[in-house]
Each structure stands twice: as structure tokens, then as C-alpha cells.
Specification:
Blueprint lengths: L1 H20 L4 H20 L3 H17 L10 H20 L18 H14 L2 H11 L5 H12 L4 H8 L3 H21 L8
Length: about 200
């Protein structure tokens, strides 16, 4: 998995270098990321087809306009997902489709460590099939607050690791761990209300 990630990062760096030399090469970035970002934005923002197309256009325009500022030593995938995430959240704010703040300051009594969260995720693999978990998450996405929806989608549907999620959300890994811990509790509650059984998630 680590080697695959390194290979993907190198391939992305080459795409960026080529796009910086020739604007026509930016199309290769669009080809690679259009469907993953379409899927991600649809899951987070829940837009209609027309709004989704506009969001994707805005994402790639912003990526193109800021490509010169991208640090080739960093993860391009996390960088462009961050742009997509920000556009999705802006869309939600404009449409007022959520209640409460997306910034979820952690209280000390609810803070969990990264190690505790990773250990808890091992229970998911042991107690339920990953594909079943994904289907359950998809079934309750509309009912989950965006601040929790984002981390659930990134972790369990997009299969991003903690460092990637931290980069995308611009939150420390410890905060990400706490958000995921809370998101899983909320997800389990909503899923069980719909008759889904998840074991010791």
C-alpha cells in the first residue's frame, strides 16, 4: 500500500510538472481526477447534476489557477481534494443545507488519541465486511452532519489515511482522530435506526 502511494505521488508530480510546462497537459490531471472528485463532491455536498458540473468546473479552474503555487514535495492528491472539499463546503453553506458549525472544537472529555481510533477501526474489519460498512455509510449520508460526513467519506469510502485527511481538512491528526471517533458513533446510531447491524464499530 505504501509503495502504491509513493508510485501514485510520483505519477502526480510528473503530471503537475508537465501541466506547468504546457497548459494543454492539464487535461491529463482532469482525466485522472474528474471521476474521483465528482464522487467525493456528490457525497459531501449532495448537489443536483447541474450544480455538480459547476462545482467540478470551479474545482479544476481553481486548481489550474493555483498550480504554480503547488509544492511538488507535497501530495497533489491531498491538495486537489482540499480544493474540492472547500468548494463542497462552500456550496453547503450557500444552500444552508446543514445545521450547526462545521468547525467542531473538541472538548477534553471527548478527545481520543489517534492510536485509539486506529485500534477501534480494527474492530470494524473483524465484525463486519468493509463493503457492508460502505453501503451503510452511503445509506445514511444525507442524515449525517457535514463535519462528520466529510471524515466518514474520506476514511471509509475514499480510503484516505490520517495524514491525507489531516492535509485535506487542514486539521491536526489528533483532531481528525476525534472527529472520526464521533462520526462513527453518530453513524452507528443512524444506521441502527434504519435496522442495520454493525457490531462493535
Amino acid at each position: 500500500m505504501a509503495e502504491d502511494k509513493i508510485t501514485a505521488a510520483r505519477a502526480d508530480a510528473l503530471l503537475v510538472e508537465n501541466a506547468l510546462r504546457s497548459s494543454a497537459e492539464f487535461g491529463r490531471i482532469i482525466e485522472k481526477y474528474q471521476e474521483p472528485l465528482r464522487r467525493y463532491v456528490r457525497r459531501i455536498a449532495r448537489p443536483g447534476p447541474d450544480d455538480l458540473d459547476i462545482l467540478l468546473q470551479d474545482i479544476f479552474i481553481k486548481a489550474y489557477e493555483n498550480l504554480n503555487d503547488f509544492d511538488l514535495d507535497l501530495s497533489f492528491s491531498s491538495w486537489i481534494y482540499r480544493i474540492a472539499h472547500n468548494e463542497a463546503i462552500d456550496f453547503l453553506r450557500k444552500k444552508k443545507r446543514y445545521g450547526g458549525s462545521l468547525d467542531d472544537p473538541t472538548r477534553e472529555d471527548e478527545t481520543v488519541t489517534l492510536g485509539e481510533t486506529i485500534a477501534a477501526e480494527e474492530d470494524i474489519v473483524g465484525d463486519a465486511d468493509k463493503e457492508y460498512i460502505k453501503k451503510c455509510i452511503a445509506a445514511v449520508l444525507d442524515d449525517i452532519e457535514p463535519k462528520y460526513r466529510s471524515v466518514l467519506v474520506l476514511k471509509f469510502l475514499e480510503e484516505k489515511d490520517y495524514n491525507d485527511i489531516s492535509d485535506i481538512l487542514r486539521k491536526p491528526p489528533g483532531t481528525v482522530a476525534t472527529l472520526i471517533h464521533r462520526a462513527k458513533k453518530e453513524f452507528k446510531r443512524l444506521a441502527e435506526e434504519k435496522g442495520m447491524h454493525l457490531g462493535n464499530i
